Amino acid sequence: MPSLDDAERRIRQSKRRLFDLKGQIETFRETQTGIVAAQRTRSDPHQFKYRLTDPLDDLTVIISEIVQHLVTALNYLVCALAESRGKPVDENLQFPICDTPQAFNARVPSELRGLSGRQVALIEKFQPYNDNHWLGIVRDLANPDKHRHPIKISAGPSRIRFDALSHIPAKTPHGIPVFMPDTVQMQYNFGLPIVFTQDKSHVIETLQVLQLKVSEVFDAFKPSFE
Length: 226
Fold this sequence. Notes:
With about 230 residues, this protein is α+β, with helices and mostly antiparallel strands. The chain has one domain (about 5-225). It has helices spanning about 5-25, 55-85, 100-110, 115-125, 135-145, 205-220, and strands at about 30-40, 50, 155-170, 175-195. The chain has a four-stranded antiparallel beta sheet with strand order 2-1-4-3. Strand 3 and strand 4 (about 175-195) form a beta hairpin.
C-alpha cells in the first residue's frame, strides 16, 4: 500500500543533519587551530604564499544535505500520490516549484501526471506565487549546489592570529635574504550567527522554518493515504 514512509524518512534525516550543523556551529565559539604550509609561487621560487581553507566551507556541505533531503521528500510525496491512485511512477514526477501560474501549468502534464485535480490544486496552493515564499527559498538553496556552485554563508566578526612555527630562507623581490615562515599556526574564532551571504538570514533559523513548512505540506496530503 502506498505511504509517505520514504518521504518522511528524508525529513527525519534532514532534522538529524540540522542537529549536526548546530553542533558544528557551536564549536565556532571556541578557538580553532590549524597548520598552514608555505607554497612557492611559480613566478618566483623565492616567494611564498599560504593557501587558507575557510572552515565555513565544511558547513555548506551539511546545509546542502539538509535542503536536498527536503527537496527529495517533496518529490517522493508526488510519487506516493500517484501510486495511491494506481498510476505509474517515472522519473519525470516531482514537486514543481514555480514563480508564476503559467510556469506551474506548463509543468503539470509531466511532473504531476496521474494526480487528481484536487491534489494538483493543493500543490499549487503551496507555490511561491501564492505567498509561500519559503518554497522558493528551498529551490534557491538547492539549485546552486546542484549546478556545482556551493551555497554561500558568512560569519560575524572573526579573529585570526598567525604564529610562525619554522622558517626557510627566501629573498624579497629586491634580492634581500630573509627567512620566511615554512609553516604557520592559525588560530581563529568565528563570530556568530552564521548567515546566508545573499540575504543575511540566519542559517539555523531559516532551515528550521523550511523543515516546518515541508512538514505542513505533508500534513495537508495525509488524508490521501488514510
